[in-house]
């Protein structure tokens, strides 16, 4: 965007200000002696009135001219102030903010932190999965060991039941053995009584044998033989009972020893299983604690990541707001600068107009001064006091033209062309070109 303003500067280069180069008409007041020696001059009343009006106009113009000079000075001071402000604004505009670089650097740092937290989260998730797998394996192992323990306990209960049954059988066999022994003793006593009865019958019985029986019956031998048979049967029964009892006792002893050995082994296995269960329980507690710590670490990492993201977003929003405010301030300063430039242009135009008017007035006064001696417009100016019109004390004045005013009041016009290039609210360049007409 380019903005160009054209103003006409009536001042030629290297000229003094209007106030310094302004020359007022010199007024020569005649003395009373000169008036007395001067011939009487007849003054027309109409000329006097015209001169009086012209004098009033000149006085008014002089007052206006003084006011114009003061106003020009004020405008020049304002122009200097505006130029100073413009220079300050231009110096401020040369600064280029690097907010985008700061935001980009902060964004990169936050992205790196987020990436690091994401990697830590993935690593912790992998460790958590491994820990969960280990916990699952330990749980399965614990369940297997618990099942084995249950089976061993069941086997132990069955073995104990079998041992109890065997013990009861042993007690029953002992009772049967006692009954058999008592029965055997009873039979032995019965056999002994029968033998004694038979012996007594044999002793008390008189056997009459026929004469023709040449061979006598030997009952003693029969009794001894029967007794030997009974004893042999009793001994054989006793031996068989003792052997059977001994065999049963040996079998039961072997079974009891075997069951006792199995019971000791089962107790040992149960103790080992209990120790394993305790160890696995401790490991499970440790893994649970580790899992809780990992979950807490993951939650903490997620919370820190979320806080970092929220803080980064808040910082980015603050930077965006600061950037927006900076842009708004820059736009406001640019608008102020353009308004000041417009005001400066208007003031330059107004100053040029006033200077043109002043130079026109100077040229008119110079044209009047070139004519030579004329009647002074101050017809009734009295040095001592005001005299009535038509008296001899009337004063004559001579208008003296300003020295060198004819050569210096030659009109000369200058054109000042200013070109200002702006882009996005920034002043890129400013050029001034003066051309004379």
From TrEMBL:
Subcellular location: Cytoplasm; Nucleus matrix; Nucleus, Nucleoplasm
Domain of life: Eukaryota
Listed Basic and acidic residues bias regions: 1-12
Domain (IF rod) ranges: 54-365
Keyword Phosphoprotein set for record: no
InterPro entries tied to this protein: IF_conserved, IF_rod_dom, Keratin_II
Keyword NAD: no
PROSITE patterns: IF_ROD_1, IF_ROD_2
Segments forming a coiled coil: 58-336
Keywords recorded for this protein, A-Z: Coiled coil, Cytoplasm, Intermediate filament, Keratin, Nucleus
One GO CC term, this protein: keratin filament
Location of region: Disordered: 1-24, 380-407
Function, in words: Together with KRT19, helps to link the contractile apparatus to dystrophin at the costameres of striated muscle.
Family: Belongs to the intermediate filament family.
PANTHER family per UniProt: GATA-TYPE DOMAIN-CONTAINING PROTEIN, KERATIN, TYPE II CYTOSKELETAL 8
Protein name as catalogued: Keratin, type II cytoskeletal 8
Higher taxonomy: Eukaryota, Metazoa, Chordata, Craniata, Vertebrata
Gene designation per UniProt: LOC108924233
């Amino acid at each position: 965007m380019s903005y160009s303003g054209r103003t006409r500067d009536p001042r030629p280069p290297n000229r003094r200000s209007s106030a310094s180069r302004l020359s007022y008409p010199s007024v020569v007041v005649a003395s009373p002696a000169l008036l007395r020696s001067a011939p009487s001059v007849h003054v027309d009343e109409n000329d006097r009135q015209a001169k009086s009006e012209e004098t009033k106009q000149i006085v008014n113009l002089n007052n206006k001219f003084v006011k114009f000079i003061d106003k020009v000075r004020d405008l020049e001071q304002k122009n200097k102030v505006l130029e100073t402000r413009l220079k300050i604004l231009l110096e401020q505009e040369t600064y280029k903010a690097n907010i985008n670089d700061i935001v980009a650097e902060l964004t990169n740092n936050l992205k790196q932190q987020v990436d690091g937290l994401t990697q830590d989260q993935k690593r912790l998730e992998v460790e958590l999965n491994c820990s969960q797998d280990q916990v699952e394996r330990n749980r399965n192992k614990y369940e297997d060991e618990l099942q084995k323990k249950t089976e061993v306990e069941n086997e132990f209960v069955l073995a104990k039941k079998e041992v109890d049954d065997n013990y009861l059988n042993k007690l029953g066999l002992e009772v049967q053995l006692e009954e058999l022994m008592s029965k055997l003793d009873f039979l032995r006593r019965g056999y002994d009584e029968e033998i004694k009865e038979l012996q007594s019958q044999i002793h008390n019985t008189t056997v009459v044998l026929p004469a023709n029986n040449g061979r006598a019956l030997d009952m003693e031998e029969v009794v001894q033989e029967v007794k030997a048979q009974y004893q042999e049967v009793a001994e054989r029964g006793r031996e068989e009972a003792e052997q059977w009892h001994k065999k049963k006792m040996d079998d039961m002893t072997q079974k009891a020893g075997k069951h006792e050995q199995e019971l000791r082994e089962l107790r040992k296995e149960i103790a080992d299983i209990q120790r394993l269960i305790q160890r696995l329980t401790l490991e499970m507690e440790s893994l649970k604690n580790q899992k809780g710590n990992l979950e807490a670490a993951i939650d903490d990492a997620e919370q820190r990541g979320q806080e970092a993201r929220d803080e980064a977003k808040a910082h980015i929003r603050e930077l965006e707001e600061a950037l927006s405010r900076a842009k708004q301030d820059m736009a406001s300063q640019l608008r102020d600068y353009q308004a000041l430039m417009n005001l400066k242009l208007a003031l330059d135009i107004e100053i040029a107009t006033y200077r043109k008017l002043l130079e026109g007035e100077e040229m008119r006064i110079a044209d009047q001064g070139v004519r030579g001696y004329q009647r002074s417009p101050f017809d009734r100016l009295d040095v001592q006091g005001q005299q009535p019109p038509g008296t001899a004390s009337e004063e004559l004045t001579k208008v003296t033209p300003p020295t060198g005013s004819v050569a210096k009041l030659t009109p000369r016009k200058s054109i000042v062309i200013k070109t200002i290039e702006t882009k996005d609210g920034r002043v890129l360049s400013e050029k001034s070109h003066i051309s004379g007409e």
